[in-house]
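Invent a record, attention on tokens:
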Amino acid sequence: MREGLAAVLLTGSLAFVSAEARPAVDPVAHPSSIIRTPSVSIEPAVVELDAGAGTSFLREISVRNGTPFELQFNVVVEDVLVHGGKRLFRPAGESRGSIAATVVVDPAALVLQPGQSGRVSVLITIPHETAIRAVAIFFRSRTNDASARGPAISLNIGALVTLRLSGKPDLFSGPVLLREEGSRISLVQTLTNRGSELLIAKGTFALVGEGGELHTLVHLPPTRLLPGETTNLEAESPRALPPGRYRAISTFASDERLVVREASMQLGEPK
């Protein structure tokens, strides 16, 4: 998972009453009749730390059981590595300079009833020599309800803890690739962190016409990249564009560095 660490993974089938069997109720007149999707949430989903070797940090992470079932969680900590530009998760102690191996979680297990919330304290100590810049705090559960009304549920939800030590990030952006999608233009660009520290890039995509008029300006959500990590960002003009020549401008900023790339293309037949 990427920033998807905060997404719930459910395995099994949840039984709901069919629409035909459900009485017709006006949800405006009776708000309590609105059917809410079962979910499990975590807060915070991302913890950012500016750290130094040998320092320790204490943080709290909360989880809420929004399902109609009792959930039993085991809390597991794993290192987050990058290989081939993608994130990988490794058990504590398996990697050199493992940060997960230093983490102490209290309590290490939780039992939450439907609608109940719980929290754990997480003590993180930074090793003196490590190239790792993130750990994942996973809440893992598998519940088997033998009664007729309960399915088996397996889920994995986690918080990402990122670290910045003494090195520097180095943002690299590839060329802007443009595609014609009917009467719209889509943009794709690759971002890579070539440095030794986490970076957070904020950026925009703009489409400008031949006369310099602005047709599209897309503000992209902040992108978090670990050292060596690569991601592709995509955007599309939200509305149909008239035929003509367009110039695309991408702008990304990270740690006081500004990276600008441009590309152009003809949309439709030239006049």
